[in-house]
Design goal:
Strand content: over 45%
Structural class: mainly beta
Number of helices: 0
Helix content: under 10%
CATH topology of the largest domain: Jelly Rolls
CATH class of the largest domain: Mainly Beta
Order of helices and strands: EEEEEEEEEEEEEEEEEEEEE
Shape: elongated
Distance between the termini: 16 Å
CATH architecture of the largest domain: Sandwich
């Protein structure tokens, strides 16, 4: 992240002053302003997140008077480069399986998926079961589940009737440039009817093809200071007809885990950008709910901005 700030002035006062932030010949944050008098310096501030991977870069604040023969003045100029973590990760969970609330799992058969993992990225899969809260199926009943699976398909025949409802979780890891893509995942299992006279003799086979619908949550961001103000939140998405992505956010000055129940979530809708109604706190997190049709929407990038 590159931050540029300065105070600018010009003479004569009847003309505006022009300023911008230039990185390798590309201008950002162009501003035109008219200080009210010769002592009035106007603040100039630009923040830009980008990848700087060349051996050298030219970064500068440019300024001039609107009147070419006039003078432009600057003071307290600062350009700061802040390295950001190159890896980003998030989790996506499937719908509850079986999807029919009148049935329960009898025995699993297979878990499979179709994904794309560019070099430097990763996707790992795990199975969870419902026991009041969602818990990871232990390795004793599904070997390798705690570490996660990377190669499709997986034999899940060891997942039996003790686990009446299950869910898949996919853990995404990006290298900061490329992001893995999950196209679909499939669970094949046998199920039984669920009623007051269990067990019944019903033991039928069902295959659930789950397109990646569900929720995806970010890691908890530590801004480094209590009371940090979450000023803006935006994202890039591609939506098919009927599909949607909506967001919730939360923040606290008390550290919390990524999957903690509190602090509570605040819904901010599905229209980017969001610039109001955002919580404050040193620790911040967002969560997206993905609603799809036959085509999967794509969440390509999420940006958060905060001030101290």
């Amino acid at each position: 992240m590159i931050i540029a700030s300065a105070l600018i002035q010009k003479d004569p006062s009847t003309y505006a002053v022009l300023a911008d932030f230039d990185i390798d010949g590309t201008a950002y944050g162009e501003m035109t302003c008219t200080p009210k008098d010769a002592t009035d310096y106007v603040p100039f501030f630009v923040m830009k997140t980008m990848t700087l991977d060349a051996s050298s870069h030219t970064i500068k604040i440019r300024y001039r008077s609107e009147l070419l023969s006039g003078d432009a003045l600057i003071k307290n100029a600062r350009i700061i480069a802040i390295p950001l973590a190159v890896n980003a990760s998030a989790d996506l969970t499937s719908v509850t399986i079986p999807t029919d609330t009148d049935t329960r799992l009898a025995v699993g058969t297979q878990l499979s998926w179709n994904d794309t993992e560019p070099s430097g990225t990763d996707l790992e899969y795990q199975l969870y079961y419902l026991d009041g809260i969602w818990r990871l199926i232990p390795d004793d009943d599904l070997s390798g589940n705690s570490a996660g699976f990377d190669t499709s398909p997986i034999n899940i025949s060891s997942v039996k009737t003790d686990y009446e409802q299950i869910r898949i979780k996919a853990s995404f890891t990006s290298d900061g440039t490329d992001t893995p893509t999950l196209s679909d995942w499939t669970v094949t299992y046998r199920y039984r009817e669920y009623n007051a006279t269990e067990p019944t003799t019903a033991n039928m086979t069902e295959q659930v093809i789950c397109y990646p619908s569900g929720t995806i949550a970010s890691k908890v961001l530590d801004t480094g200071k209590n009371g940090a103000t979450w000023t803006s939140f935006n994202w890039d998405e591609t939506l098919a007809s009927g599909a949607d992505i909506t967001f919730e956010v939360r923040a606290s000055d008390i550290s919390f885990l990524m999957d903690a129940v509190s602090p509570s979530w605040t819904a901010v809708g599905g229209t980017s950008p969001v610039t109001s109604g955002l919580p404050t706190g040193q620790y911040q997190q967002w969560r997206a709910t993905i609603l799809l049709t036959l085509e999967t929407p794509a969440l390509e990038k999420v940006n958060t901005y905060y001030t101290w």
